[in-house]
Amino acid sequence: MGIRVKRLRLAGASATAKPYEVSFQPEGATDGYRPLSIIAGPSLTGKTTIIDFIAYALGGGYLPPHDEIRTNVRAALLEVDLDATSTVIERSAAGAVSSFATVWQATLETTEAAAERRYPIEPTGAPDGLSQLVLASSGLDGVRLSDSVVKEDTGSAMLSIRDVFRVMIIPNDRLDSKNLVFEHGNFMVGQKYRQTIEVMFGVYDNEEAVIAERQKRVALQRTKEEGRLDALTVTADRDHPDGRAVLQQRVDALSVELADLNVQLRTLDARRRSTDSASAEIRIALDTAQRVDAAARVRLRDRESLLARLDALRLQYADDRRKLGFLLDTQALFDPLRVSVCPACFNTLSIAPTLVDGTCSLCHQDAEHTDGAGDAEDPASDSAPLVRAELRAVNARIVSLTDYMTRLEKDRELLVRDAADAARRAAGAAAAVDAITDSPAPWLALRDRITTQITDLKLAQQAAETGVKAWDWVDKSAALVLQLQREYDELSSQRRKIRPDRDAVVRLLSARFAAILEDVGYPKLSDAYINSDFIPYVRGLEYTNASSGGMVVIALAWNLALWEISYEQDANAPGLLIIDSPQKNLGHNATPDDDFADAALVDRFYAHAKHWLATAGQGAQLIVVDNSPPESVSDDVVIEFTRRADMPPYGLIDDAVS
Question: Which of 424, 440, 456 is the last residue of a domain?
């Protein structure tokens, strides 16, 4: 999704001072954003200051220094969609550039009900900083850019939101600059600009390493969260073994009981019941509490008795297991056919007796039968498998019985707690009956009993609510683990995916660049393309050979092409483009004999942008600062300053009119 700007609010110098606000939302809507938003008005009214504050809130290092800002503004609040999540970012604007930002996942109206988090601004590469939070909305967080594209063994720096500003925010001075793609300035700035574009389209040379690093970071975070989930689960299971559903039912039931007792208390105070009715109610409550206490003790005694019987049965199974083990050992040690002396003559046998085809070699009888009556099978011949089978069955019974007893033991702990609660309530009811004789009026004793019950129920409700919250934390942690696992799997699929060809991306950008120039009506257009270093060429010449108006049109076409293609290709890009003063050196601002003095260039620029936003660019956002936009886009003007005190709004700081 990327970044979408919805509202900018500049908080007044004091808590009671009025704020200054610019909305980029559809007129009358409370959510969403305009695909095309135009900030109009003459110079020196604060139009560019709005862009500066948007960049500042997103993590920029420049705070507008104007006197009216220092006097009237204490903080900048920006409401944006970060990856379709409504987010408010606040940075202090009082004094020096702030070193941290406060962030809510909310709208400007709902920040008080949302969780507040603070993010450091510097260093911009800090994993827990604002820059990486904003970049995460475009899938650009955790990206490291190599300091050298030639040497492999070199340092690297984390991609920051300020690097992405170069492709997202086009200030006035870049439109007719001969350093459009930073090719003639600081070498590292130009290299980072090219690397940022390559990372956006997934054609960066170190893309595989970048994704592997991000995957490693996600895996570490997932492992950490899994440990936290285990700890939360153990704690919740130990302190609140009933589980969320039972605890929630208990909270609801206790709420109903509390409401009923409060009604009784109000009724009692209003009516001051008679002595007889009050005494009867107290004794009925005692009788009920005693029955509940007796039933709870019976259930606990039955459970303890069952556990004792099952424990004796388990000991019996254990004894059977030992006996069967001894029997197997005996059969292995003492062979019943190991005869070495003839039982008739007592001479040593030269050949030990064996079973040959089912016949004994000593007595020459069938081994399956004997002459005598009764069962004559040789128990040693096939008893071992039966013993082993019985031993396995005994082991299975012991395991099953142990598991069942473990569950019963946990249930017994709950019964112990319930019995203790019932005994406490019965004791309280008995004390209430005893208090009748000492109380000046029985209704006072009844009132004390109800008040005590309300206090006890509130404590029980609080304990149950604590348990529900504990299981809520378990669920939230489990959801985060699942989210991190999905992110890890997505990164794995990206690593397996065939990478786009860099030359193919350059060809796409070149084709769109030429198409936009033609759409806008660039005079005498021919041989327009983008080279491998992302430098624009028109009429076969580098863009720096064009006139000042020509360089503005080329700069607009290049940045529009980069914005459009990245969005259409679902690249890791913000999807947001901000342009300051697209009419610079064009139309009435151009010299009369210049080819770019035609005002239709500006109209066609806006027509192209609106057409693309309504078709292939649905969901993207373009913000334009323009002194006098054409009538064709009057419906897209979000605010128009006048610089006239008698025609508000005078400017961004609308009360600074002098």
Answer: 440
Which of 327, 349, 377 is the C-terminal boundary of a domain? 377
- Same domain for 254 and 311? no
Mind giving me the DSSP string for 161-181? HHHHHHHHEE-HHHHT-TTTT
Nearest of 512, 654, 592 to residue 201 by alpha carbon: 512
Return phi, psi of residue 515, to 5°.
-65, -40
Residue 405: both structure tokens together? 């007893």
Report if residue 598 sits inside a domain. no
**Do residues 480 and 222 make contact, with C-beta atoms less than 8 angstroms apart?**
no
Whether residue 436 sits in one domain with residue 485? no
Give dist(CA 381, CA 367) in Å, integer: 10
The encoded tokens of residue 398 equal 């012991």
Number of domains in the chain: 3
**Smallest Cα–Cα separation from 78: which of 54, 60, 52, 105?**
54
Instruction: Tell if the pTM clears 0.90, that is, is over it.
Output: no
* Euclidean distance between CA atoms 609 and 617, whole angstroms: 9
Q: Which amino acid is at 34?
A: R
Q: How confident is the model at residue 378, as a pLDDT?
A: 46
Please provide residue 69's backbone torsions phi and psi, each rounded to the nearest 5 degrees: -75, -50
Alpha-carbon span 41 to 51, nearest angstrom: 14
What is the Cα–Cα distance from 13 to 11, expressed in whole angstroms? 7
Residue 58 maps to a domain: no
Strands 100-104 and 85-92: antiparallel
Query: Are both 460 and 313 inside the same structural domain?
Result: no
pLDDT per 10-residue tile (average), the chain, 658 residues: 93 86 90 94 92 95 90 94 94 91 94 91 88 92 70 63 95 92 88 91 69 76 87 83 80 83 74 55 75 84 86 87 82 63 78 76 68 42 72 87 85 82 79 61 66 82 84 87 85 65 91 95 92 94 92 95 94 94 79 69 93 95 94 94 88 80
The pLDDT, as a whole number, for residue 443 is 59
Whether residue 407 is contained in a domain is answered as yes
Across-strand partners of 79? 7, 88
- 405, 453: one domain: no
Q: CA torsion angle for 462, 466, 469, 473 (degrees, to 10)?
A: 170
Q: What are phi and psi of 115, to 5 degrees?
A: -70, 140
Half-sphere exposure of 199 (CA within 13 A, CB side): 28
Joined tokens for residue 50: 């709005």
Distance, C-alpha 513 to centroid of its chain: 38
Same domain membership, residue 294 and residue 404: yes
The closest alpha carbon to 562, from 637, 608, 609, 510, belongs to 510
- 520 part of a folded domain: no
Distance CA 197, CA 146 (A): 14
State residue 151's pLDDT score: 44
CB 54 within 8 A of CB 93: no
Element (H, E) at 382: helix 379-438
Q: Which domain holds residue 348?
A: 338-377
Q: Is the dihedral of CA 62, 65, 69, 74 positive or negative?
A: positive
DSSP strand pairing (169-170 vs 576-580): parallel
Strand 20-23 relative to strand 3-12, pairing: antiparallel
pLDDT at 376: 41
- How far apart (Å, rounded) are the C-alpha atoms in residues 77 and 80? 10
Q: Residue 158: its pLDDT value, please? A: 85
> Is 405 found in the same domain as 323?
yes
Rounded CA-CA distance 335/201 in Å is 80
On whether both 305 and 266 belong to a single domain, the answer is: no
649 vs 19: CA distance, rounded Å: 14
Answer yes or no: do 346 and 296 share one domain: no
